[in-house]
Design a protein that fits this description.
Elements: H1 21-29, H2 43-56, E1 60-64, H3 67-78, E2 84-88, H4 93-102, E3 109-113, E4 129-135, H5 147-156, E5 160-164, H6 169-172, E6 182-186, E7 200-204, H7 207-219, H8 226-236, H9 239-259, E8 265-267, H10 277-283, E9 291-295, H11 300-309, E10 325-327, H12 339-345, E11 351-355, H13 361-372
Helix pairs in contact: 2-8, 3-7, 9-13
The chain binds pyridoxal-5'-phosphate.
Length: 373
């Protein structure tokens, strides 16, 4: 019997068989020729890692059980007890919670760098500083980092640059090509794209760093299951079609909301008024993604009414699916910051984050118009 599936089937097996001791030695002697145990490697998770690695232009990648695991793996690839990291102050809430609540217990300390000071890192560096963690486009205010300038700054100080590229995706920006050392994703978001997978991936520019990532992934048990990998690969095949569609819809919505009297501010890098618009234009090749935040009146009743009325933007605290949604940074991703930190970042009662999907844009515009009316 000859079976030739067109796409990779799901290898839903935790372990693989060997004929005898000779074949076991071939596994160790010819890396990549065979599989042993799915935590160490599986055809589906390897296919996902390799596909993202190719898009990001890295040496190698590891697929992880979540975006958080991808961040953890990246930090542990470079850091040990006694080390210090720099982190952009505008960062996903989970990233700062990981650093503050868990890595601090392992003896890895952190200093947060305000957005305005990201290009003057020497003021924040200590002898034990290893790296800077930042996002291409920050969550939730869509501040855009100049990655080439950051990479030059980091390398001049002997630091590695680790970039969370979740909001941009490699269709919009490829951080390794701009000098970053590691790029990572919450695959849960645009890479898989259909709100049905939790996964992550970490890609290294350098093969030795990639080997460290792989070891951290395997020994901490961060690696991804076959089914989730398969779903993510399936989603990834349309990433290059989805990102322009998300971007087109988001720009039309940002322009509409900017004119709306109930909206006090729109944070979207595609708008000419956005402080990093020119940088975003250049770094993103003319695409700005599907994420934006809007400021309504700082009044919970106004926010609740908007959430209750909107049909096409359900309040679902994630992002980047083909179907639109909205989220609320103050109550979800940035809930555990101090009130001072929240205020400093502009995360107030009226701030709502929109994840614009790829539905017909007239339907989305009509829904927002009635929800704000
Ligand atoms: C969601 C998200 C994460 C965390 O990813 P999970 O898949 O939820 O673990 C990290 N960074 C950014 C920017 C995110 O949006």
């Amino acid at each position: 019997m000859h079976i030739h599936p067109k796409i990779t089937p799901i290898y839903q097996s935790s372990v693989f068989k060997f004929e005898d001791l000779n074949e076991l030695e071939l596994y160790f002697g010819e890396p990549g020729s065979r599989y042993l145990y799915s935590r160490n490697g599986n055809p589906n998770s390897d296919e996902l890692a390799e596909a993202v690695n190719r898009l990001e232009g890295g040496a190698s990648a590891v697929a992880t059980g979540s975006g958080m695991a991808a961040i953890f793996a990246a930090l542990l690839a470079f850091c040990q007890a006694g080390d210090h990291v720099l982190c952009a102050a505008d960062i996903y809430g989970g990233s700062s919670s990981l650093l503050n609540q868990e890595l601090s217990r392992m003896g890895i300390t952190v200093t947060y760098v305000p957005f305005e000071e990201l290009y003057a890192l020497d003021r924040f560096v200590q002898p034990t500083t290893r790296l800077l963690l930042c996002e291409t486009m920050s969550n939730p205010l869509l501040r855009v980092a100049d990655l080439r300038r950051l990479a030059d700054g980091c390398h001049g100080l002997g630091l590695k640059l680790v970039v969370d590229n979740t909001f941009a995706s490699p269709v919009i920006t490829r951080p390794l090509a701009l000098g970053a050392d590691v790029v990572l994703h919450s695959v849960t978001k645009y890479i898989s794209g259909h709100s049905d997978v939790t996964a992550g991936v970490t890609v290294a520019a350098d093969a030795a760093v990639a080997a460290r990532l792989k070891q951290v992934g395997v020994l901490y048990g961060l690696t991804l299951s076959p089914m989730e990998s398969w779903l993510a690969v399936r989603g990834l095949k349309t990433l290059h079609l989805r990102m322009p569609a998300h971007s087109r819809n988001a720009l039309a919505i940002a322009e509409f909301l900017q004119q709306h009297p109930a909206v006090r501010a729109v944070y979207y890098p595609g708008l000419p008024e956005h402080p990093q618009h020119a940088l975003a234009q250049e770094q993103g090749g003319g695409l700005f993604g599907g994420m934006m935040s809007i400021l309504l009146a700082d009044d919970a009743a106004v926010v609740n009414r908007f959430m209750q009325r909107s049909q096409r933007f359900p309040f679902a605290p994630s992002l980047a699916g083909v179907d639109s949604s909205l989220s609320y940074p103050l109550g979800t991703s940035h809930r555990y910051l101090t009130p001072g930190q929240q205020a400093e970042l502009g995360i107030t009662v009226g701030l709502v984050r929109l994840s614009v999907g790829i539905e017909p844009v007239e339907e989305l515009l009509a829904d927002l118009a009635q929800a704000l009316g």
